Input
Amino acid sequence: MKWVTLAFLMALVGLFAYVSADLPDRADSSAPANESHLTSEFIERTEEQIEIPNIVSAILADFRSYDTLGETFVIFTAGLAVLLVFQRGYGRNDD
Output
């Protein structure tokens, strides 16, 4: 069983190394993460459409609300899983 786990982990590391070759450089100013063409659009739309004074709250609450809801659901599910694992192991005697 240890060999199967080791083989799986080695395959996973190989997959991550293969996929990471396509990532842009960290200092690449033309990388999609560093593009700032949406910033002015978000600021203009926030002032026109939403009446929330804080722009970060406006973006998270309105423009990316489904994404924020999904992240909240993932965190809640992970916390619930941890509680269930701890509750199941409580009171067992493994003498």
The chain has a mean pLDDT of 82.
